[in-house]
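U., I forgot to send this yesterday:
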Amino acid sequence: MTLISLIAILIAVSIHEFAHAWVADRLGDPTPRLAGRLTLNPLAHLDFIGTLTLILIGFGWGKPVPIDPYNLRHPRRDQALIALAGPTSNLIFAFGLSLLGHLLAWPLIKLLFSPLIIINLSLAIFNLLPLYPLDGAKILLGGLPFELAEEWEEILTSYSLPLLIISLLPLFRGRSLIDLFLSPLIHILLRLLL
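Result:
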């Protein structure tokens, strides 16, 4: 992993986790603010094991933002909005950098922005998968009718982690299931942005 990629990941994770914290705070839950997570400082959002595995094997995670659903006025809906904030912030950042890069049209700017755009876009799309502990699971459950959400929560709680692990393993000619399914979408969006 290059230094530029590592910096881009730190920025993307910081934006993602800050967005979760900011929306939770706006929706009435002070827990992230009290935990020091309402910041863009990457150190506040790094998980030791997640950072270590990122450096060693190229896959990692940030520290989840603590949320107390009892502080939210509409817990199911608000948790879905908080979850949606992370990927949305990464998409907005990637599109904003792309627009700025096209407006400035400096080769150096495009070179610096490319890793940020790629990583923010990849992080957003990956996190939209409807599997725990990813944001997509909370978004899905928040959008379903209550009884159906309860059934799906039980299924996701039981099967998400094993499915996610299997999906990340390079079982198909050195590629993972997630890579096979998400890469085409990411490449289409990257062609538009870069």
